[in-house]
Specification:
The protein is an alpha/beta fold. It has two domains: 206 residues, NAD(P)-binding Rossmann-like Domain (Rossmann fold), CATH 3.40.50; 88 residues, UDP-galactose 4-epimerase, domain 1. The protein is 38% helix and 15% strand. The protein has ten helices and 13 strands. The strands form four sheets. Strands 3-2-1-4-5-6-11 form a seven-stranded parallel beta sheet, sandwiched between helices. It has a two-stranded parallel sheet with strand order 7-10. The protein has a two-stranded parallel sheet with strand order 8-13. α5 links the parallel β5 and β6. α2 runs parallel beside α4 and α6 packs across α10. The longest helix is centred in the middle third of the chain and has 22 residues. It starts with 5 loop residues before the first strand and ends in a 7-residue tail after the last helix. The structure holds NADP nicotinamide-adenine-dinucleotide phosphate and ligand G4F. The site of ligand G4F has 22 residues, from α3 and α6.
């Protein structure tokens, strides 16, 4: 019988890592996850994988570690000897990266160097996925953005991601390692962190309907993003590591919408016409430097990976509003 493939996922307790764990387990992988110590449980997104208690199954293993702790990374890689590493762990909030730029640089940027160096020493044949971001395009030099578009990051987060991107390219070119950058545009889901704008809106609407919240306080409503559906983006990330050669790919829907349009669509799904009564603009949520417009061109991914997004803007808003309403005990009709 062929040996199961082994994957190590950093950021397994986050949105993407948890969907990737679901995806790889369904494909028959043995999945290892790096989990950091937290004073409250941080495994809510993966509890379903082991029935709600912190127990391992025969195909699913958790390892305590931290992206700032090089020794923990070396030990985990040595113990698992993964065929593939999916590096999703990061301080991933752009606004907050202005408050904690140094730790963001370490966790979001330098951790890629630590992992690749650990792999180079311990397990150089392991394939490596770097969770690169459309935030690297920042003050975009070209519309739409593709693999060849120059970077112009606008936040400590974006700068850290540019460092990580070039580190992955360098380890590929210098040491022949199989390292790929997935340059993913915003992707959302019911598992999205509640302080990212789409989820803040959909949880807010659900709580308004449940009578638990009166208003939603937001920042810049004019920013435009290319929003896709997170589970589909994990399929793209996996496909990158199955190619004969490592490469970098933009993953996006090719549509862009303002935050205001997301608000309008989400309130429409919830059956509330007068959304302006529930939204207040609070300058606290503005950023010192904003990324005004992002829109991706995923032609290369379509041609080389056979990947295309199915869920677009309206369906995404519907999925998220319905899921958050359901959590509040409210079933919305289609
Ligand atoms: P997320 O939900 O914020 O998840 C981040 C993960 O990183 C969590 O599991 C978190 O652990 C972990 N983490 C943070 N600091 C750590 C540390 N010091 N040591 C170990 N683990 C640590 O992010 P996401 O939305 O899933 O995004 C996944 C990756 O893709 C990130 O690298 C993000 O920057 C990148 N990305 C995301 C998008 C998007 O639209 N979602 C687009 C492009 C790129 P806790 O659960 O303990 O906090
Ligand atoms: O939802 P956001 O916080 O996502 P942002 O900044 O685009 O970053 C996300 O996507 C990146 C990919 O491009 C990832 F790399 C990154 O890790 C993260 O997942 O904000 C989206 C837009 C921004 O323009 C922001 O200014 O929404 C605007 N916004 C308006 N009001 C708000 C709010 N953002 C947040 N988080 N909270 C608000 O109240």
């Amino acid at each position: 019988m062929a040996q199961k493939k082994k994957a190590l996922i950093t950021g397994i307790t986050g949105q993407d890592g948890s969907y990737m764990a679901d995806f790889l387990l369904a494909k028959g992988y043995e999945v290892h996850g790096l989990v950091r110590r937290s004073s409250s449980f941080n495994t809510g997104r993966i509890d379903h994988l082991y029935g709600g208690t912190v127990q391992e199954t025969k195909d699913f293993f958790m390892h305590y570690g931290d992206l700032t702790d090089t020794n923990s990374l070396i030990h985990i890689i040595d113990k698992c000897r993964p065929d593939e590493v999916y590096h999703f762990g990061a301080q991933s909030h752009v606004r907050i990266s202005f408050d904690i730029p140094e730790s963001t640089a370490q966790i979001t940027g330098v951790s890629t160097l630590k992992l690749l160096e650990a792999l180079r020493i311990v397990s150089p044949k392991t394939k490596f996925y770097q969770a690169s971001s459309s935030e690297m395009f920042g003050k975009a030099r070209e519309i739409p953005q593709k693999e060849t578009t120059p970077f112009y990051p606008r936040s400590p987060y974006g700068i850290a991601k540019v460092f990580a991107y070039w580190t992955a390219v360098n380890y590929r070119e210098a040491y022949g390692m199989f390292a790929c950058n997935g340059i993913l545009f915003n992707h959302e889901s019911p598992r999205r962190g509640e302080n990212f704008v789409t989820r803040k809106i959909t949880t807010g609407i659900a709580k308004i309907l449940a009578g638990k919240q009166k208003k939603i306080y937001l920042g810049n409503l004019d920013a435009k993003r290319d929003w896709g559906y997170a589970p589909e983006y994990m399929d793209a990330a996996w496909r990158m590591l199955q190619q004969p050669e490592p490469d970098d790919y933009v993953i996006a829907t090719g549509e862009t919408h303002t935050v205001r349009e997301f608000v309008e669509e989400a309130f429409r799904v919830a059956g509330i016409a007068d959304w302006k009564n529930y939204i207040e603009v609070d300058p606290r949520y503005y950023r010192p430097a904003e990324v005004d417009v992002l829109i991706g061109d995923a032609t290369k991914a379509k041609q080389k990976l056979g990947w295309e997004p199915k869920v677009k803007f309206k369906e995404l808003a519907e999925i998220m509003v319905k899921a958050d309403c359901k959590k509040q005990g409210i079933e919305l009709k289609s």
